């Protein structure tokens, strides 16, 4: 019988690990797990405090100065060495604890907020005066829990003389800024054996699945200002260019491959109706499971922009501000993480939290039962679907990567919603974050003590991505788009 590619890859990976297998400790015991869970529980007040503070900061991509400083401070206090401002991003960092030779295990930490979602921690829609952004994806919980997991895992490593290196990657601007891509492109994951992450959710699950590749960017049109009534013939409207491009893009939707998604917002359309706008900007996303399709559709958008500029006698420039691969799931790691999530279990809410959730569900027609947060969903490997995109995907192509979700949101809440912001800012979100920290820490302990688990995960990665893969970032060679969340300006006074 001819061995399968997976078995051949597994065999070669196990051989490669043979030289370092002696660095691994004995398998994780129930006493080890109890020690780790106790450490997370002891640190839970710090996890919750950090989550609430970052929720209050509500800093958008590449502007997360307070959020990153808080997490870096916690890691330094716990004995990690912190390298800040990595890969050209002032708010990015890599924190490390190393104890001799052994596996390198990474945990991801996010902390950026979303514009336009400021909301109080209440079950009814209530804006926060003077605030624009909010944590509608729960990244305040993400970063806080990941740091909490790392602190507990490091304590266990010290107490038991576990060999290897534990890293925390502080990754800014996940929401459209593709912060992790610059880290991957810069080689910061080249020696990582396995990467762990998690994400806030409406349910508890370690199922592994795919995501959508995407390219995002901005098209900026420049024209000529004029009095819109007194001298309209002297003007050339940049806004006309944007709107004509949008019309072309909307007609193009009929003629793109299935599963393609195209979204846009006009981020600058001029300042006053009686002035022909000499500058306008539109912000586009293109998504598809296949990165090559994304590149092809984006090239067609570029043509639509050029055609609109010709038709309106304006000029146009474009800038790709983000771009990510589709997620490459790892079933080997998914099953290991699922086992640990089941050890941790579901989440119990207090009567006050239940009342909060039921009140919020009045704004969510057809919402499922809140009892679902008490359970862990059955494990699945899902190779179809995936409507969102994440820069975690780029990491999954260069190192075996696994994630989970825990119930931090009220069941039935939509992603990127005011309901998510509210739940992420109170105890419902914090309880889910603590569960995530426990699961991450337990899975990290398994990896530090089980060379075969890492070998199998690496062999699966090699099989899924193919033998000839060479990583090349979807966003090319550009530096980080540090101003992508700043207001669009240009074209002179109007």
Task: Describe what you observe in this structure.
It holds the Pfam family M20_dimer. It comes from Caulobacter mirabilis. Residues 1-25 form the signal peptide. GO terms for molecular function: dipeptidase activity; para-aminobenzoyl-glutamate hydrolase activity. Keywords: Hydrolase, Signal. With 494 residues, the chain is an alpha/beta fold. The protein folds into 2 domains: 5-210 and 326-465, Zn peptidases (Aminopeptidase, 3-Layer(aba) Sandwich), CATH 3.40.630; 213-324, Alpha-Beta Plaits (2-Layer Sandwich), CATH 3.30.70. 39% of the residues lie in helices and 16% in strands. It has 13 helices and 12 strands. The chain has helices at 5-18, 30-57, 65-77, 139-160, 179-185, 238-252, 291-312, 331-344, 351-360, 392-396, 418-424, 427-449, 451-465; strands spanning 81-84, 93-99, 104-109, 164-170, 194-201, 208-209, 213-222, 261-268, 279-288, 315-324, 381-382, 401-407. The strands form 3 sheets. It has a 6-stranded mixed sheet with strand order 1-2-4-3-5-12. Strands 8-9-7-10 form a 4-stranded antiparallel sheet. Strands 6-11 form a two-stranded parallel sheet. Strand 3 (104-109), helix 4 (139-160) and strand 4 (164-170) form a beta-alpha-beta unit. Helix 1 (5-18) packs across helix 13 (451-465), helix 2 (30-57) crosses helix 12 and helix 8 (331-344) crosses helix 12 (427-449). The longest helix is centred in the first third of the chain and has 28 residues, at 30-57. The N and C termini lie far apart (75 Å). The model is unreliable at 1-21 (pLDDT under 50).
């Amino acid at each position: 019988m001819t061995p399968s590619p997976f078995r051949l890859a597994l065999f070669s990976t196990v051989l490669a690990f043979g030289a370092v297998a002696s660095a691994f400790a004995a398998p994780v015991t129930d006493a080890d797990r109890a020690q780790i869970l106790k450490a997370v529980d002891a640190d839970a007040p710090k996890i919750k405090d950090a989550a609430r503070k970052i929720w209050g900061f509500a800093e958008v991509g590449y502007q997360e100065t307070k959020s990153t400083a808080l997490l870096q401070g916690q890691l330094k206090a716990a004995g990690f060495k912190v390298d800040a401002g990595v890969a050209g991003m002032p708010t990015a960092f890599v924190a490390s604890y190393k104890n001799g030779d052994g596996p390198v295990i990474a945990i991801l930490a996010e902390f950026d907020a979303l514009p336009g979602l400021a909301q109080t921690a209440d079950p009814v829609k209530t804006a926060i005066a003077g605030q624009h952004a909010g944590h509608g994806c729960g990244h305040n919980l993400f970063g806080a829990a990941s740091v909490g997991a790392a602190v507990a895992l490091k304590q266990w490593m010290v107490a038991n003389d576990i060999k290897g290196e534990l890293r925390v990657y502080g990754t800014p601007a996940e929401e459209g800024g593709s912060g992790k891509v610059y880290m991957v492109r810069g080689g910061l994951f080249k020696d990582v054996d396995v990467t762990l992450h998690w994400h806030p959710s409406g349910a508890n699950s370690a199922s592994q699945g795919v995501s959508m590749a995407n390219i995002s960017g901005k098209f900026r049109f420049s024209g000529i200002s004029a009095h819109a009534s007194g001298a309209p013939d002297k003007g050339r409207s940049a806004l006309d260019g944007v709107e004509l491009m949008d019309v072309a893009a909307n007609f193009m939707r009929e003629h793109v491959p299935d599963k393609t998604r195209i979204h846009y917002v006009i981020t600058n359309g001029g300042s006053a109706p009686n002035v022909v706008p000499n500058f306008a900007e539109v912000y586009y996303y293109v998504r598809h499971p296949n990165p090559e399709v994304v590149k092809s559709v984006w090239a067609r958008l570029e043509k639509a922009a050029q055609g609109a500029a010709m038709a309106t006698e304006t000029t146009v420039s474009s800038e790709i501000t983000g771009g990510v691969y589709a997620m490459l799931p790892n079933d080997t790691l998914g099953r290991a993480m699922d086992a640990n999530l089941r050890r941790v279990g579901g989440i119990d809410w207090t009567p006050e939290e239940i009342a909060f959730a039921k009140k919020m569900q009045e704004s969510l027609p057809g919402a499922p039962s809140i009892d679902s947060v008490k359970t862990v969903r059955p494990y699945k490997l899902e190779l179809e679907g995936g409507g969102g995109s994440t820069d975690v995907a780029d990491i999954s192509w260069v190192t075996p990567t696994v994630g989970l979700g825990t119930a931090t949101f009220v069941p039935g809440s939509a992603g990127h919603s005011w309901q998510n912001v509210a739940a992420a800012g109170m105890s419902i979100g914090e309880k889910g974050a603590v569960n995530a920290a426990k699961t991450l820490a337990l899975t990290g302990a398994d990896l530090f003590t089980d060379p075969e688990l890492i070998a199998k995960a690496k062999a699966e990665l090699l099989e899924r991505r193919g033998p000839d893969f060479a990583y090349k970032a979807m966003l090319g060679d550009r530096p980080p788009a540090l101003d992508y969340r700043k207001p669009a300006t240009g074209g002179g006074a109007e």
